[in-house]
Amino acid sequence: MIIFFSLGKPVWFDSGAGYPIAGEVIDVTRSRISIKSLLNGKTFVFGIDETARVVSRIPLPPEGVNDMITMSDLSEASILWNIKVRYDNRQFYTYIGSILVAVNPYHMYHEMYSTNYVQKYENALVLNALPAHIFATASLAHSKMFTDKINQCVVISGESGGGKTQSTKLIMNYLASVNPGKNKLITEQILEASPLLESFGNAKTVRNDNSSRFGKYIEIYYSQKSIVGAKLSDFLLEKSRIVTHSIDERNYHVFYELLEGFDTEEKRKYGLTIPEKYFYLNQGASMAIASKSDAHDFQSLLTAMKILNFTKNEQETIFKILAAILHLGNIYFSRTIDDANHDLIQISSKTEIEWCSHLLGLNDQGLLQKLTHKVTEARDERLLSPFNLEQALDSRDAIAKALYSTLFSWLVARINQIVRVNNSVDNSIAILDIFGFENFSTNSFEQLCINYANEALQFHFNRHVFKLEQEEYAKEKLAWKKIDFSDNTDCLDLIGKKPNGILQILDDESNFPKATDQSFLHKCHRLHESNRLYGKPRLLKTTFSIRHYAGDVEYDVRGFLDKNRDLLRSDVIDLFSSSRNEILANMFRDIRDVYESHRGFHFKTGRFITMKAKTPTVSAKFSDSLSHLIDTMTRCQPTFIRCIKPNNDKTPNKLELSVVLEQLRNTGMLETVRIRKLGFPRRYLFEQFAKRYRCLITNSFDNSDSKEITIHILNNLPTKFTLKYQIGITKIFMRESLEYHLEKERSYLLNKAATTIQRTIKGYIQRKNFEKQRHAILILQKQYRRWIDKKK
């Protein structure tokens, strides 16, 4: 193999770092090959038995390739290196066909998103006409909506820290700039919904200072080419963050913005102080974010509420609920033992109870009772039983989560009410900003739902990319059979298919009063132990694992049932429904109506009305929402944006190849390559092919037509390559094995030709030197003889 590697030859090589590196051959002997890395200039030496770690490379242009579909080499190494080359040149966007890869620079280059850039990309119908940019993707979707009369959907996905939230805002800003609508207030209100929900739905995590802790789907409606309204759908708000978060993380932004934005008088009004004093805020020991001004963002929040026409009473209710949640977190209990040796609890922070009751418009004793006692409902009466310390803390946290999640749902509904469509609609552009695939040291119910959503979107992505591949084959009139490719249907079935999917088992167990997390786990083991995608631990652990498209993830089932049920006690709902604050009361009355329709009894009397359907669980509601989302997206023409995090430490303008490669694999970019490799991934225009391989023609062929030259070359190949290519209308489609054969033959002929040229030139030079020396000798002889003759 070494004889094929000549000096200066561009190659990919495996340095052992886990990713391919570009290099050039600088020395070749019979026993080894030396390669200089283009990454850091180091020299790597490979022995004769290690040459499998070195493969030929087609060099990239200095600035990289705008659309990687145009590259002849569409390997993992080429995709990764092209992204690096472009990133180093401050080109943060790259295409793979119609798919936009967006690498987060961790720095806002405002000049790249100015009005000039909006005008530059407006009405761009061809992606490659200009350098890759998120505005070009938005412009293409926008133009296709009008020209094709088809609803569009922009799917934005990627890991936390990849820039999904920022990408969503950039697309919305672009759409608002090119078609503001006749009613500019509606457009402005749609834009202002983003910072409002960002405050309430985003938080600092160890991976991202502004991580979205919920999924959102925004539909922007058009009529007569103008924006006329919008609709927002939210998915799976992370409720656990309201009451607990890890070290170096924060609760939702809005709490810190509230405390930094309020002046002394406002803080006194709500009984508030600094963030460090609140248990729900200080667990992560991270009160501030260097790149974020909470005081400034609070003013932006107030501006958004004003533009969205939130009344003064609504704003005050929002602040009261937020303040009450902080006071709730500071309620603590002490354990006592009564005469009968029973564990009892006492409230050790009555001031916080008084503040909560005041802010929420509740009776002090009513709230105190809900925190310390459980109500058992019978047909004709309610029985009170005291909590132990652990149950009381759980009750406190459950109330806090219910308050915040109810407020969040109300905010989404209120925004939808404000920006709703009041007239007929022609078409729409939807933007999906979904949480990325997650795999932590400990994964729970939330991660299972998130990863299930990513599996569904990955299936949607594969189906779409596969369709585009077939469309190109059809366009080029290839003889084509259906491509069989590895999809993730089996994993989707394992998690969600009825009747034995994991989420279905969880729902069944959630409706049995005596079921436990352990009984749920045992049932999963029994039904899925033989499934190749399901993993049962060897030791007695409370875990199971699933082989996702992005890798194996182990889930800890502790808390699964409680999180899935997520039932707020009827007496607590009843308490908040009777609040003196009418806005808060209405929030919980709506919840009470839903619960009543499912549970089959009246809250106030406790009497059963009739047998009703079981209350939907969190997973059931999420699965229904996800199914509806995929159905909606299927009816739209999709555009995919894959957001890439360049490094793990959030450093500006620094790209780590290992970090990017892992995401390319997890987000399905490399799956696109694999799908293409099942067909004919090597493709050349006839002109390109004829120019590169015309040297293989050995017989007389007098024809200048590129297609005829291509056909002639292919017809003279060995018969084993007959099925390795297909001829289209404008391109030749090949498999890698044929390209390797052609490259090998071309290399042999070029080397042979080079040797012939060298031999001829060397012979010519030697002959010229000989003639010159012979001529000189003859002259010397002539002169010498003349001299001798004169002497005589």
Strand content: 15-25%
Radius of gyration using CA atoms only: 34 Å
First-to-last CA distance? 71 Å
Assign the CATH class of the domain at 68-304 and 424-439 and 636-677: Alpha Beta
| Total count of strands | 24
Question: Helical residue percent?
Answer: 40-55%
Largest sheet: 7 strands, mixed
- If helices are DSSP runs of H or I spanning 4 or more residues, what is the number of helices? 26
- Return the structural class: alpha+beta
pLDDT < 50 stretches: 601-613
- The shape, in one word, is elongated
- The CATH architecture of the domain at 68-304 and 424-439 and 636-677 would be 3-Layer(aba) Sandwich
- Tell me the strand order in the biggest sheet: 6-7-21-8-17-11-12
The name of the CATH superfamily of the domain at 68-304 and 424-439 and 636-677 reads Kinesin motor domain
